[in-house]
Amino acid sequence: MRRLTLAPLGMTAFALIGCAAKPTPPVIEARIERVEMPVGVACVDPKDVPAEPLRVGGQLNGDAAHDIGPIAASNLRLRAAFDAAVALLQECTK
Q: 20 lies in a domain?
């Protein structure tokens, strides 16, 4: 009878001892790291950026002989704007 009474008391004592032990708090290390990251900077004045050429979708009628004129002219304007943009951006890479 005595063993039956002591067994629950022993288990309770072990459980309470486990709760009484405080775990060590984690070590928090504060440090500062310097990381080099590229940051975009404006190297081109926004007013120097070429304007988008006009679109020619409204001038097309489906006739290939007619449509080649507006498409060719649009192609020349697009290439000129692209060349101007490339010239501006090449200055940024120096």
A: no
| Per-residue pLDDT band at 80 (split at 50, 70, 90) | very high
Q: Which helix (H) or strand (E) holds 14?
A: helix 2-20
Compute the CA torsion angle 11, 14, 20, 26 (nearest 10 deg).
Answer: -120
Token couple for 94:
């120096």
pLDDT in tens, 12-45: 777 667 666 677 888 888 899 999 988 777 788 8
**Got the DSSP string for 41-82?**
---S-GGGSPPPPPP-GGG--S-HHHHHHHHHHHHHHHHHHH
State the total domains in the chain. Answer: 1
